Amino acid sequence: MRMTPIREVLVVGRVIVLVRHILGTDPACYESNTFLAKSSWRDMLRQKQEMKNLLFVCSRNQWRSPTGEEVWRRQPGFNARSAGTSPKARKTVSGADIRWADVVFVMEKKHKNRLTAEFSRLLDHKPLYVLDIPDEYQYMDPELVEEIEQKVALVLDQKTQ
């Protein structure tokens, strides 16, 4: 059986279904209650390039930065990760995290100081913002979620203007 090249991609929610263009004919019909969007490979690559990678950093990567990651990775157009500056953090921030990020958000000035001390060359041309969120919240605390949403949105809106 001869495989023909992939000619289009159907995006179904978060699942990407590859459809082969068989014998020069398009599939007759797609029946689904789910929204289907047709995209070329170029469109898919452009969308991937337009995704912003957001890195959230606190001390131990327990409450604040994982909340930031959870809140912003659900937003369309964003990828999010979290890490901590402490050696005892659940996930300690690494050079790979800094390189991956388009924008870095730290919860307190001390986190910015630690990152710049350890990763100064990697952060030279990388936007880094201090959110000024104290360590007094639990994971996904509604007040913490609201504060992160508002402060990060404000920064991202300023960046796009």
Automatic annotation (TrEMBL):
SMART domains: LMWPc. SUPFAM superfamilies: Phosphotyrosine protein phosphatases I. Residues 52-158 form the Phosphotyrosine protein phosphatase I domain. InterPro entries: Ptyr_pPase (IPR023485), Ptyr_pPase_sf (IPR036196). This is Low molecular weight phosphotyrosine protein phosphatase.
